[in-house]
Amino acid sequence: MAVDVTFSIIVVLMQVFFGILLSILSVYLSLRFFDKMTEDIDEIAELKKGNVAVAIVLLALVASIGTIVKQGVQQFDEILLRGVSLPFFMIAFVMAIVQLVFVVLIAVLTMYVAIVLLDSMTVGINELKELKRGNIAVALLIAGVLYTVAFIVSGTLSNLSTLSIFKPEMLAGLLGIQ
Question: Reduced to 3 DSSP states, what percent helix, strand and coil does the chain have, rounded to the nearest 5?
């Protein structure tokens, strides 16, 4: 019984640690992503000038990537709590990390595709120039598209741990571990 409680505490602490780590990673990736997509805009300088449009898009990116990554964190315990033996737990842990990396990659790729598609659909608008000018309407459009896409994608990832490629039982079986 004491082992089960200790194990549960360890798993919870790991979840908290990875939740914090992934939230920081989500913010970092969002800022780097915005920086790469908007090379003509110095977002820090624009924020210092009070450019609300840039702030709205940055907020949308952080919230959108965070919304998608949240699904990976929620699935973390579902993968880890399957194991009983230490070797099986280690396999489950590695599989959980692989799944989290997969979800982060999906989040960044999804935001990139959403922005590229929006740009191709708004032919008469140069979104970067409009953001730099502080055009809040364009910023709200971009933010709405990003968050809508993130909301839908996060829903599709909610059962990710049920896929056989993310089941530690499959890898353990291949390795002959129980």
Answer: 85, 0, 15
Q: Residue 80 contacts by C-beta under 8 Å, 6 or more apart in sequence? A: 11, 14, 89, 92, 93, 96
pLDDT by residue for the chain (178 residues), tens only, comes to: 566 678 778 777 877 887 788 788 878 888 888 888 888 888 889 999 999 999 999 999 989 988 888 877 776 666 666 556 777 777 777 877 888 888 888 888 899 899 999 999 999 999 989 999 999 999 999 999 999 999 999 888 877 666 666 666 776 677 777 6
- Whether the Cβ atoms of residue 46 and residue 54 lie closer than 8 Å to each other: yes
Q: Is the pTM of this model over 0.70?
A: yes
- 145 Cβ contact partners less than 8 Å away, ≥ 6 residues apart: 114, 118
Reading the block at residue 63, the tokens are: 């919230």
Question: 3-state DSSP call for residue 76?
Answer: helix
Number of domains in the chain: 1
Residue range(s) defining the domain that contains residue 167: 2-175
Q: Is the dihedral of CA 11, 16, 21, 27 positive or negative?
A: positive
